[in-house]
Design a protein that fits this description.
alpha+beta, four-stranded antiparallel β-sheet
């Protein structure tokens, strides 16, 4: 997802539609229409425009543990050279589900999901540390997920 400079301006109705979908991504367009004061067709059109513009995605959020991915970790990565090139290489990896350029101790933070510790070691040694420009990594293994939410609204 890109930053604010590329985001379209959202009116109150589009924000209300987004908030309705954040609460329940399976909510029908008719139900959303009743909540925001639009017809089903108008909601469908707005949702399509919002997804086409990259403002939002409608996806099924899964529990990786229940799908056989028992190891999740956040990686702090220090880069020598162009951080964007390293971030692009990370983003192309199936095991990486989140990549962000940062300021501070690390240049990039990346979340990874792996089947087990052996796959995490393999990912780190054979893929991530092999990327040109990766100077150092630090791995923060997840022990327990306490909170994960996607309904923060549109403020």
């Amino acid at each position: 997802m890109s930053g604010k400079k590329n985001s379209p301006v959202l009116d109150a109705t589009s924000k209300a539609i987004i908030e309705q979908l954040q609460l329940d991504g399976r909510r029908s367009y008719a139900e959303i229409g009743k909540a925001v004061g639009l017809s089903e067709a108008a909601v469908r059109q707005r949702v399509q425009k919002l997804t086409d513009a990259g403002v939002m995605q409608i996806v099924a959020v899964t529990d990786p543990m229940r799908l056989g991915f028992s190891r999740q970790a956040m990686l702090g990565i220090r880069v020598s050279g162009d951080t964007r090139a390293v971030a692009d290489a990370l983003a192309d990896m199936a095991e990486v589900d989140y990549v962000v350029l940062t300021a501070g101790s690390f240049d990039i933070m990346a979340e990874v999901v792996c089947e087990d510790d052996d796959r995490l070691i393999e990912l780190l040694n054979q893929k991530i540390r092999a990327i040109d420009g990766v100077a150092a990594t630090e791995t923060f293994v997840y022990l327990q997920l306490k909170k994960q939410k996607y309904d923060w609204g549109t403020r």
